[in-house]
Amino acid sequence: MLTKLVLFAVILEAHIIVDFHMQGILAKLKQESEWLNHPEYDDMYKNDWAIAMWLHAFEWTFVVMLPLAYLHHWEITKAFVICFVVNMVVHAVTDHLKANMRDISLVADQTIHILQILAMIYFLG
Fold first, then answer.
1. How does DSSP classify residue 38?
2. What is the Cα–Cα distance from 64 to 87, expressed in whole angstroms?
3. Alpha-carbon distance 102 to 96, whole Å?
4. What is the distance between the terminal CA atoms of the chain, rounded to a whole angstrom?
5. Nearest CA to 49 among 16, 18, 68, 26?
6. pLDDT score, position 40
7. Quick check: pTM over 0.85?
8. CA-CA distance, 78 to 34, in Å (whole number)?
9. Most buried by CB count within 10 Å: which residue of 30, 63, 69, 87?
10. How far apart are CA 125 and CA 103, in angstroms?
């Protein structure tokens, strides 16, 4: 039980670092309105926010899953890959709902991400 609590704390800290400190310019660029309201907007840029969203989702998933990869001695199984892909998609969709659709709050966004962490620990920890 203590191992799971420590694992949760480590992954939660990784989440905080990536979602709040490392996101940098991606926080702005993943917002569709940032592109649409740019003074030099061109239709060519209309979907560029999506690239930033997927880059952030990949970055978050990669960093938060590092402790699990270490725990499993860097053996990347089918379950690990499935978990990686699911986490990336859930993170991107959640952030899109918050940043672009404005359908969920920061509280809901963070609750979903913490549930992702708990699911990772349950399935892979």
1. -
2. 10
3. 8
4. 11
5. 26
6. 79
7. yes
8. 37
9. 30
10. 32
